[in-house]
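Hello Y.,

Per our agreement to keep a running log of every chain we model this quarter, I'm adding this entry. I've kept the format consistent with earlier entries: sequence first, then predicted structure.
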Amino acid sequence: MEPAADTPDRSKQLMLLMTQHQRRIFGYIYTLVPDRHDAQDILQETSVVICEKFDQFRSGTDFAAWACQIAYWEVRRARQKFARSKVVFNQEVVDAIAETAAELLPEMNARHEALAKCLAKLHPRDRELLLTRYEPGSGVEEAAQRSGRSLVAAYKALGRLRKLLLDCVTNQLSVEGAV
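Predicted structure for the entry above:
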């Protein structure tokens, strides 16, 4: 194990890994917790623990898997708080979901990378339309307005772009042997 405070490079490595994998970690947590706000709170707690335990992470290993294991324990810890909620899964269900999510992580990582490559191939105007549409708190109306399209044209373009991305990601994964 490397010392936690050995160099500023280690802190930089932590920041890069957290930035790169935060969405994946959140996605993992969100599969285990039914409420988005609760999942965001657990992500915050998980991030704190990751920072505290980063000296235990071994460079060159799978950061996302390591971080998701920490997230799993944070979810378990938070379940006491959720016990008062109307929707509570028993621990066996949570464990089964966590195991399945961990098994799917490599495939999801491959899909994420393929999607990034396919998005990069799009015309900038089309990419901006898609990214605006899927920004938190945004919708088709705002995406249409920002792209200078009518609402009808935006819906048609989004449908076409979704199909194009699906085909591109599927092709990318088959070429890379991930499917």
